[in-house]
Amino acid sequence: MSESKALSPVKPVGMELVYYYPCPHCGRRVPLIAPTQPARVQCDSCRGQFPVVPADEKTVSFLKTIMDSGRAGIDPSFL
Ligand SMILES: [Zn+2]
């Protein structure tokens, strides 16, 4: 009774911007999903902690809007 129907490729319904912050202890580029509040983060390599300058919430929101939450940025051959 189960149909072996091939799933068609799924389109994104959301996106995030990843910011990289260089760890002052070991130099690793620590990826963070755009933090919009000042925060203290922990390096996932050396475990050292450091404060980061937050992302501008309006800019992040604007970029998500012009990207239509990712839908405007997919491979054109899948449109
Ligand atoms: Zn580190």
How would you describe what is shown here?
This protein has one helix at residues 57-66, and strands at residues 18-22, 29-33, 39-42, 49-52. The strands form two sheets. A two-stranded antiparallel ribbon has the order 1-2. Strands 3-4 form a two-stranded antiparallel sheet. With 79 residues, it is of the alpha+beta class. The protein has a domain at 18-70. Bound molecules: zinc ion. The site of zinc ion has 8 residues, from loops.
Mean pLDDT: 93
**What spatial form do the alpha-carbon principal axes imply?**
elongated
N/C terminus separation: 32 Å
How are the strands of the biggest sheet laid out side by side?
1-2
Largest sheet: 2 strands, antiparallel
Rg over CA atoms, rounded to whole Å, is 18 Å
- What's the total number of strands? 4
What fraction of residues sit in β-strands? 15-25%
> Which structural class best describes the helix and strand composition?
alpha+beta
What is the count of DSSP helices, taking H or I runs of 4+ residues? 1
Bound molecules: zinc ion
Low-confidence stretches: none
Give the helix level as a range of percent.
10-25%
Q: How are helices and strands ordered from N to C?
A: EEEEH
Question: Can you describe this structure in just a few lines?
Answer:
By secondary structure, the chain is of the alpha+beta class. It has one helix at residues 57-66; strands spanning 18-22, 29-33, 39-42, 49-52. The chain has a domain at 18-70.
